[in-house]
Specification:
Layout (H helix, E strand, L loop, with lengths): L1 E6 L3 H14 L8 E3 L7 E8 L5 H13 L4 E11 L3 E8 L1 H17 L14 E6 L6 H8 L6 E3 L1 E8 L11 E9 L5
Antiparallel strand pairs: 1-3, 1-8, 2-6, 4-5, 4-7, 5-6, 8-9
Length: about 190
């Protein structure tokens, strides 16, 4: 299974983001970008790639412990940024230190469960909204995102998500995501 751990924004915050993205797709040059849709909006904490099903029981137990050790925290969608000239994202504000701590704990949990993780990097909170196949001037989109300020919510859950990459070859087809595990933060619930 192709898996990643994530924080999923609630429906209300996704609706706010959808309004912001609607403004972005009307800007000149928007047609050169592939826009992500609601099912793909998440803050990835740790990308695990292909995980052998034999590792899942231990991975689930370790992710549950990581969630219990992390208290719920406030977060909001805020501003934006880019990776190079090919990825446009919305950022976060609020409990960023706790979000980073949760990402560290999830990464450690996956490694201890035997998941072959990529090289460890400092966590950058981002929710990807668009990608480009070729270098693209993202400045007009970034200027619009600079004004974006979402409402706060309380992050109370860690999700393990399965990603199924498009296989049909149909242009514009998006990956499909399925939550295969979820754990309350701080042991609540």
């Amino acid at each position: 299974m192709r898996l990643f751990a994530a924080v999923l924004p609630p429906e209300e915050q996704q609706t706010e983001l959808a309004h912001a993205v609607d403004r972005l797709v009307r800007l000149p040059g928007a047609e050169r970008l592939r826009w992500t849709s609601r099912p793909g909006w998440h803050f990835t904490l740790a990308f695990m790639g292909e995980v052998d099903e034999d590792l899942l029981p231990d991975l689930h137990a370790r992710l549950g412990r990581a969630a219990r050790r992390t208290d719920p925290f406030p977060l909001r969608l805020h501003g934006g940024g880019h990776f190079g000239r090919r990825a446009l994202w919305v950022g976060a504000a609020g409990g960023i230190d706790t979000l980073r701590l949760l990402a560290e704990r999830v990464d450690a949990a996956a490694r201890r469960a035997g998941v072959a993780m990529d090289e460890h990097r400092r966590y950058q909170a981002h929710l990807t909204v668009a990608r480009a196949r070729h270098d693209t001037d993202l400045r007009p989109f970034l200027a619009e995102l600079d004004r974006f300020e979402g409402r706060r919510w309380q992050v109370a859950e860690l999700a393990l998500v399965r990603s199924r990459l498009p296989g049909s070859g149909v242009p514009g087809e998006q990956p499909r995501y399925e939550t295969v595990g979820a754990w309350p933060l701080g042991g609540a619930g």
